[in-house]
Amino acid sequence: MATYATPGVYYERADSDNAGVSPLRTDIAGFVGMAARGPLHTPLPVQSWRQFQAYFGDCIGGGYLAYAVRAFFENGGRRAWIVRIAADAASSAGLDLADAAAVTAWRIQAISPGVWGNGLSVALRATHRLQTIMDPQHSTPDYAQVTRVAGFVRGTHVRIPVKPGMAMYRMVAAVDSANNRLYWVDPDPRGRTSIQQSLTGLDPNSTPLLESVEYTVLVFDGTRLLNSYEDLSLLPDHPRYGPRVLAPLSTPPPNPRDWKLPDAPPPVCITEQRTPSQIDALVPLAEMDAATFLSGGLDGLSQLTVRDFIGETVDAMDDDATRQDKTRGLSALVPISEVALLAIPDIHIQPEQPPTYQPLPRCVPNPCLPQPPPANAVTPILTPDLPPRFNDAQVYQVQAAMVQQCETLRDRFALLDPPYDCVSDPRLGVAAVRAWRKRFDSPFAALYFPWARVVDPLFLPGVRPRDIPPSGHVAGYCASTDLTIGVHKAPANGALSWIQDLTSTIDAATHGLLNDEQIDVLRAMPGRGLRIYGARTLSNDPDWLYINVRRLLSMVAKTLRQAVRWAVFEPNNIATRTKLHLAITSFLLTLWQRGALAGKTPRAAFYVICNEDNNPPALRDNGELIIEVGIAPAIPFEFVVLRVGRVDNEFDVTDTDQAGAAA
Q1: Could you give the CA distance from residue 663 to residue 651 in angstroms, rounded to a whole number?
Q2: How is 432-454 classified by DSSP, letter by letter?
Q3: Which pLDDT value is given to residue 375?
Q4: CA–CA dist 381, 530 (Å, integer)
Q5: Where is the signal peptide (predicted)?
Q6: What are the distances in angstroms from CA 421 to CA 5, 270, 436?
Q7: Secondary element (H or E) of residue 225
Q8: What is the pLDDT of residues 328-360, one digit of tens each?
Q9: What are the tens digits of pLDDT across the range 563-584?
Q10: Are 491 and 505 in contact (CB under 8 A)?
Q11: Which of 161, 204, 318, 632 has its C-alpha lying 20 to 30 A from 300's C-alpha?
């Protein structure tokens, strides 16, 4: 440690400890599908089912996405990335707001595309929250001498009456609170803009009342008030500028790990339609007391294609427009590094229109309560688009793209659902799903059979169920297992929630047949509920037979890859190698202590080599560092055999592990 003699302040470098290694989360799922609303082809993270409803709406007859996400959270999931898809025909409902000169100033539109926006109505009211009296005799064309300036800020839109029925409008460029002055032209030349205008032509003997001009936007779902947005300004310099306050949904940052959305988005957003010269004119908006319905919203599902599900590979030479057009559906999840599970249940969609119920009698409102503004348009009838049914070739194309992404990135795992025909035709039995399984050979995917049957929220409680793909339930259970025990635990033999039945009843003999072909089965266990009773991948390599082994290796590789980044450009000497060896050994030792690795001792469970043996001088001179890591993952007990035999006049019960037979 340095010693000091002269009093003073000295600088010392004190780097934080970068050598520690902590496991990364493996419970985060990525879903791609169709929803009632929400941004298109943009991944957004949700933390709960209620937050999903706020951003993407409730269950719809034309998609399984909402059902799968609800199943994910009901079974223990805590965070999921959602990508809503639609064809290019999708559009947002909107309404143009004109100013007093009949120029379109703002466009209010639904926060996301879809026919849901056609059910929103909007009213606009002008308010004058701030008032002050002007003294023209002590004012100049560049500023106004007023009685008070409290509340006025740069960008405040001000109405100045000239005579009855006529007024001029100016923007406050600066505020002098010491002298009670509102400047129309900024006294600092560096703050002047084209919108700032001098004020002339006032009667010096008058005392005009200056009023701020702001707007309140009322948003209704039909006639039910959803939100009220007050003090919105027409001018970009104001902190409450309308298009800034009600801006479109933000996109994820470049490093989106742990990035969170607000609990709920506003139902509408505002976009500026005026040119800079029209903004400089300072013409106020025309009020709209009667609520007017938005129009033009389309779901864009009838023209849906496989390309909308999987997108295209982005080329480094693509421009921004081409890159955005290619980034659709599944490809939008590529940069989201924290996704560990993939599911696309909507490729199996069997669309159906939601039920229509006779509306309840209209209640007479209490005349003593505030009344909603009258609507100046007939309430529209919302008829959502329905997507097409996809054939087996299209289903395989999407699932093959899922597997390809997992194999390329090697940090996520695909949960595959069998096609609808495999679970709906009793004449085929399990032959169809066995044939479907033969299409895949990958350790990064698993196939689950049969489908789940849940109570359909679109109908009255208990009226009818709906059959949905099981990937949402499986993803939720995997997430719950990862959070409570660890990724090394096989995601099986746990009871499922929010599930009433299965589309097929699997007996023991059929289960054995499917298990041998590595099809993971959901079964109704007497007295134990509905459970996942399989944990095998779709790989024909016996080394990658189990899901937990593949996912554990992916987690370890990803964790170490990120944990050793600090070593780049560090000296390639024994000190750096020792720090790396110690950090990785400590991490693997923790995994062994948690039961993730096999072996009675750490030496039997893993090894780490980072020394001069695998880093010879020629390699070090080339600026390279080799770290060799080997681990022995724990294999799950898949078969437990109880051998009961008679010994003299006693019974002898032996619990024997037959895990080896599973391979």
Answers
A1: 31
A2: HHHHHHTT--BTTEEEEES-EEE
A3: 64
A4: 40
A5: none
A6: 84, 45, 11
A7: strand 224-232
A8: 999 999 999 999 999 999 999 999 888 766 555
A9: 999 999 999 899 999 999 999 9
A10: no
A11: 318
Beta-bridge mates of residue 631: 606
pLDDT one-digit tens code per residue, 590-631:
999 999 999 999 999 999 999 999 999 999 899 999 999 999
At CB < 8 A and 24+ separation, what contacts does 612-621 make? 615/572, 615/577, 620/572
Q: What is the pTM of this model?
A: 0.89
pLDDT per residue over 62-75, tens digit each?
999 999 999 999 99
User: Is the pLDDT reported for residue 648 higher than 90?
Assistant: no
From CA 189, how far away is CA 390, in angstroms rounded? 64
DSSP secondary structure letters along 291-340 = EEE-B--B---TT--HHHHH--PPPTT--HHHHHHH--GGGGGTT-TT--
Q: How many CA atoms lie within 13 A of 164 on its CB side?
A: 0
Tokens of 262: 């607000």
Backbone angles phi and psi of 218, in degrees to 5: -105, 125
Residue 660 has pLDDT above 50, yes or no: no
Q: For residues 151 and 22, give the distance between their C-alpha atoms in angstroms, rounded to a whole number.
A: 51
Contact (Cβ atoms closer than 8 angstroms) between residue 548 and residue 535: yes
Cβ–Cβ under 8 Å, residues 527 and 495: no
Q: Is the dihedral of CA 557, 562, 565, 566 positive or negative?
A: negative
Sorted by sequence, the CB contacts under 8 Å of residue 359 that are 6+ apart come out as none
Question: ∠ at Cα 273 (270, 277), nearest 5°?
Answer: 130
Show the tokens assigned to 132.
Answer: 């002050």
**Is the preceding peptide bond at 418 cis, omega within 30 degrees of 0?**
no
> For residue 42, what are its two tokens?
């943009």
Backbone angles phi, psi at 101, to 5 degrees: -95, 15
CB burial readout 389-427, b (16+ within 10 A) else e: ebeeebbbbbbbbbbebbeebebbbbbbbbbbebbeeee
| 3-state secondary structure at position 414 | strand
Query: Looking up tokens 């002007």, which residue turns up?
Result: 134
